[in-house]
Amino acid sequence: MLTVAFTNQKGGVGKTSTVVGIAAALQRQGRRVLCVDLDPQADLTQWLGLDPLADVRNVNDVIYADTRGIASEAIQPSAWGEGIDVIGSTLDLAERETDLSPGSEFRLAKALDGLSGYDAVLIDCPPSIGRLVVLGFVAATHVVVVTEPSAASLRGVENVLRTRDVVAEHYNRRLQLAGIVINHQSRTNESALRVAEVAEAYGADVWEPYVPARAVVAAAMGAAASVADYGADAKAVTEVYDALAQRVLDLRVLEVQA
Ligand SMILES: Nc1ncnc2c1ncn2[C@@H]1O[C@H](COP(=O)(O)OP(=O)(O)O)[C@@H](O)[C@H]1O
Ligand SMILES: [Mg+2]
């Protein structure tokens, strides 16, 4: 199954916003998507209308269980209706970051094994390159790096790409870099300079169009609503998410021999 991990070592660059924007775009097209929240902050879980404190199976339980296919028991319908399902997160997930028992890198992949019925699985990674991100990368077929046009965020891109290389070499030969999303593009000189830097460094790996900085994104997050609900103000961002969703659907899973 097409499984895309959205990452950057740096927080606040727009990983969660991009996952939610793409999920909503896929839903508008009548597709089915599963969002997996791999961040103990549970922003994705809350944005999609679920309570991280609810007494239901969450991603932490799924990883802890170490049982093939168990992810299906933690899938909840989102509050956004047909087409978006969620495996939610909770603060306890932070405990998995320090679980270094042998083979534990494979637990999320194992839990998601055999899942079907979705056009894509989107994994929202925490702002780190630690154990949780490795769990996500081992379970994924693709990595999308989300970055802001800022120097600190671009350093995060480099670190994520190195982690992808290591995981692909040792744990998951299917893992491909899908692309780099530039979020929060603005009309400042600094933004233009950094966008040029990313384009120069990563060429065709950079996904266009870029996501513009728009206040509606933060407003939608705060209201646990879709950006698309914000009418004319949201049009520019919504169109970009539609285009990025198409790029996700166009990804092909690499066949590798066992
Ligand atoms: N394109 C955008 N325009 C304006 N604000 C944005 C945009 N993308 C994200 N934000 C805001 O920036 C903050 C960080 O975004 P978020 O998606 O939570 O980042 P991350 O998941 O990388 O930590 C949030 O308050 C979010 O609403
Ligand atoms: Mg986030």
Which tags fit this structure?
258 residues, binds adenosine-5'-diphosphate, binds magnesium ion, alpha/beta, Rossmann fold, 17% strand
What does it look like?
The chain is built from 9 helices and 8 strands. Strands 3-4-2-5-1-6-7-8 form an 8-stranded mixed sheet, with helices on both faces. With 258 residues, it is of the alpha/beta class. Helix 7 (189-202) links the parallel strand 7 (176-185) and strand 8. Bound molecules: adenosine-5'-diphosphate (ADP) and magnesium ion. Magnesium ion binds next to helix 1.
Q: What's the helix and strand layout?
A:
Layout: E1 3-7, H1 15-28, E2 33-37, H2 43-47, H3 59-65, E3 76-77, E4 84-87, H4 107-112, E5 120-124, H5 131-139, E6 142-147, H6 151-170, E7 176-185, H7 189-202, E8 206-212, H8 215-222, H9 235-249
Parallel strand pairs: 1-5, 1-6, 2-4, 2-5, 6-7, 7-8
Antiparallel strand pairs: 3-4
Summarize, please.
The protein is of the alpha/beta class.
Structural class: alpha/beta
Number of individual domains: 1
Distance between the termini: 16 Å
Name given to the CATH homologous superfamily: P-loop containing nucleotide triphosphate hydrolases
Per DSSP, the total helix count is: 9
CATH fold-level name = Rossmann fold
Structure ligands: adenosine-5'-diphosphate, magnesium ion
CATH C-level class is Alpha Beta
Per the principal axes of the C-alpha atoms, what is the gross shape?
globular
How much helicity do the residues have? 25-40%
- List segments where confidence is low: pLDDT < 50 over at least 5 consecutive residues: none
In total, the number of strands is: 8
